[in-house]
UniProtKB/TrEMBL annotation:
It is found in: Cytoplasm; Nucleus. This is Ribokinase. Residues 77-395 form the Carbohydrate kinase PfkB domain. InterPro entries: Carboh/pur_kinase_PfkB_CS (IPR002173), PfkB_dom (IPR011611), Ribo/fructo_kinase (IPR002139), Ribokinase (IPR011877), Ribokinase-like (IPR029056). It comes from Prunus dulcis (Almond). Substrate binds at N84, A85, D86, G112, K113, G114, A115, N116, E214, D353. Keywords: ATP-binding, Carbohydrate metabolism, Cytoplasm, Kinase, Magnesium, Metal-binding, Nucleotide-binding, Nucleus, Potassium, Transferase. Activated by a monovalent cation that binds near, but not in, the active site. The most likely occupant of the site in vivo is potassium. Ion binding induces a conformational change that may alter substrate affinity. Its EC number is 2.7.1.15. GO terms for molecular function: ATP binding; metal ion binding; ribokinase activity.
């Protein structure tokens, strides 16, 4: 994965750094904002019921960010996806075939594309829910505490007894680039054949939904269909180029999108799932693999994107690493986003997830497409300057400060 870096642009006075925190009344389900609920050790029964795994209590010396409550005007970001324990090994270079090398350092940090994106939403002070699975093990506790500290609502994070928490081996080289091997664990196993009414309820009440490909595609399809059933005619893009005062109202009437991050499994994406995806977000490597077309130049990338347009995906958000990013909307000119170098690139792990989640937050807040790209690029620039995935997710204040300084 290429390093993600921030963009240079003029500050916008439309960005704000405070979210009102008034509770909204939900007619069917109470919103849990207690960050100190204890782990439920009840084992999974034969019907594969999922145990509620809201969160662990943390060390008293650490003060977690409380989950951001919903306001009257905000609908939550709901992330459905994977949670991994990332096992880092820092090396000068990748080993050759049959070769054993020594790592300079090693540690285990919370990660996984779904958990990364949820943590990013929480740290950006937007009300965020995470729907996912971990095992009843130490890695599950690690991930839960990290999400809790990021201010994520964990009512829909479940523990399963029949599979360990997913994990990834991250081989981090001295230039900040990485190679990753994923073991699915609870991310790929023990999901119920049909998601619970409670999980689908939070999806239906979402303002925006983020999916990735590190969980079974059948789960992603259920979620996308559930969200689309609420907004059967979702022409949401009509609102984002209107004036700022009208964007929020138009967003509510038009609906907002399901975003599918293309990262994860190598298999093609089914047409059934693509039918319910508003924005597909691959990096250039994933775009090449999924289309079978070259992506060495911007022209080639544009041709590859057309293949997804023909499959019904109206928008494709391509992450181009050090070359920036581009949003391709069918029938419109691409919107390109350039980058500026981060002070120092320490670790690109999670940069793409930061970009995607930050774009989603800006979009659901009613920003223009160009503003969304800028906000996401600024967040990704901050991400690559810190080691780890979830630990590197920036807070809203830091992103706004970067926006104001360029």
């Amino acid at each position: 994965m290429s390093a993600m870096r921030a963009v240079a642009f003029s500050p916008s006075n439309q960005w704000y750094d405070k979210i009102q925190t008034h509770f909204s009344n939900h007619p069917n389900r109470a919103i849990n904002t207690n960050p100190h609920l204890q782990f439920n050790n009840t084992t999974q029964n034969q019907s594969n019921r999922r145990n509620l795994f809201p969160c662990f209590s943390t060390d008293a010396s650490k003060t977690p960010n409380p989950p951001t409550p919903l306001t009257i005007t905000s609908s939550p970001l709901v992330v459905v996806g994977s949670a991994n324990a990332d096992i880092y090994v820092e090396i000068d270079r990748l080993p050759k075939e049959g070769e054993t090398i020594s790592a300079k350092n090693g540690q285990t940090l919370a990660g996984g594309k779904g958990a990364n994106q949820a943590a990013c939403g929480g740290k950006l002070s937007y009300p965020t829910y995470f729907v996912g699975q971990v095992g009843e093990d130490a890695h599950g506790k690690l991930i839960t505490e990290a999400l809790q500290s990021g201010g994520v609502h964990l009512d829909h994070l479940s523990a399963v007894s029949a599979a360990p928490t997913g994990h990834a081996v991250v081989m981090l080289q001295s230039d900040g680039q990485n190679s990753i091997i994923i073991v699915g664990g609870a991310n790929m196993h023990c999901w119920p054949e049909k998601l619970s009414d409670e999980d689908l309820e939070v999806v239906r009440n979402a303002g925006i939904v983020l999916l990735q490909r590190e969980i079974p595609e059948s789960v992603n399809t259920q979620v996308a269909k559930a969200f689309c059933s609420v907004f059967p005619a979702r022409h949401f893009l009509q609102f984002i180029d209107q004036n700022a005062a009208g964007r929020s109202k138009a967003a509510k009437s038009a609906g907002v999108p399901v975003i599918l991050d293309a990262g994860g499994m190598e298999a093609p994406i089914s047409q059934e799932l693509l039918n319910f995806v508003d924005i597909l977000s691959p990096n250039e490597t994933e775009l090449r693999r999924l289309t079978g077309m070259p992506t060495e130049s911007f022209e080639q990338i544009s041709h590859a994107v057309v293949k997804f347009h023909k499959m019904g995906v109206k928008q494709v958000l391509v992450k181009l690493g050090s070359k920036g990013s581009a949003l391709f909307v069918e029938g419109e000119e691409p919107i390109k986003q350039s980058v500026i170098s981060a002070a120092k690139v320490l670790d690109t792990t999670g940069a793409g997830d930061t970009f995607t989640a930050s774009f989603a937050v800006a979009l659901v807040e009613g920003k223009s497409k160009r503003e969304c790209l800028r906000f996401a690029a600024a967040a990704a620039s901050l991400c690559v300057q810190v080691k780890g995935a979830i630990p590197s997710m920036p807070e809203r204040k830091s992103v706004l400060n970067l926006l104001q300084s360029h």
